[in-house]
Amino acid sequence: MGNVILDVTDVNKHFGGLQALTDINLRVEEGTVHAIIGPNGAGKSTFLNVIVGRLTPSRGRVLLGDQVLTGKQPHEINQLGVARVFQTPEIFPDLSLLQNVMIPAFAKRDGQYECGIFKSLFGERKIREEAEHILEDVGLIADRDKIAGSMSRGDKRRLELAMCLIQNPKLFLLDEPTAGMSRHDTNRTIELLQRIKQRGMTKIIIEHDMHVVFSLADRISVLAQGAIIAEGTPEEVRNNPKVKEAYLGGESL
Ligand SMILES: Nc1ncnc2c1ncn2[C@@H]1O[C@H](COP(=O)(O)OP(=O)(O)OP(=O)(O)O)[C@@H](O)[C@H]1O
């Protein structure tokens, strides 16, 4: 294995009596796309929430490079280079698309969202140019002055991708990036993610759509009832009988 960027050791999470994650061990190699799949309620979102600091594990440790993430606040983890797109896009609905993409760049420069935009305008032009470049990349440049809240759901999700990309994260977490999208928008998003894959950004992607998973993933981990039941290349996972069993009692992927 090359450089490990994310190293998860023995992570457990319970909610009261419910064991949502059991002894999760996962290593993600720098520059790869690692998919996490599994039936509804398997623990996928819980796992992402542990990585980004929204949930504290009951036991275990998460490292980004040599930095310990466990116990840090979400904004601290974000500052260390972890960005995430959510199932429901988290955007600033009253601002333009361009402003939406510029804000995380100011926040990264100034250390926090709250005061970033009001701080010195030094570097603003550079940030604007970068934001425009990224809007072009995600196919939204023609709409840069539109109000974000007025865009379609698919466009909002692409906007949120752009807001993460401008941070140039070390690790990019995508929670069902194509959920609710038309086939056309899904394919555009796959193309976009393939393009950004070439830049070498490490990604973890949670996805139910196997077309998306098999188009993008270098490796796949399969979660079922809070435990990893299989891990390997897409071909290995596709042919694993335990995985077929976890999905609807043997139906093939
Ligand atoms: N905050 C919480 N409090 C209590 N139980 C929770 C909480 N969050 C998740 N759970 C439970 O933990 C289990 C794992 O949920 P999680 O949302 O991580 O699964 P998932 O694999 O992401 O599912 P889906 O594919 O449906 O999004 C479920 O049984 C869920 O009900």
TrEMBL record:
Pfam families (UniProt xref): ABC_tran, BCA_ABC_TP_C
Q: Which GO terms describe its cellular component?
A: plasma membrane
Concerning Gene3D superfamilies, the annotation shows: P-loop containing nucleotide triphosphate hydrolases (3.40.50.300)
Q: Which GO terms describe its molecular function?
A: ATP binding; ATP hydrolysis activity
Which SMART domains does the record match to this protein?
A: AAA (SM00382)
Q: Which domain of life is it from?
A: Bacteria
Q: Which intervals hold domain ABC transporter? A: 6-250
Reply yes or no: does the keyword Magnesium apply: no
InterPro entries xrefs: AAA+_ATPase, ABC_AA/LPS_Transport, ABC_transporter-like_ATP-bd, BCA_ABC_TP_C, P-loop_NTPase
The protein, known as: ABC transporter ATP-binding protein
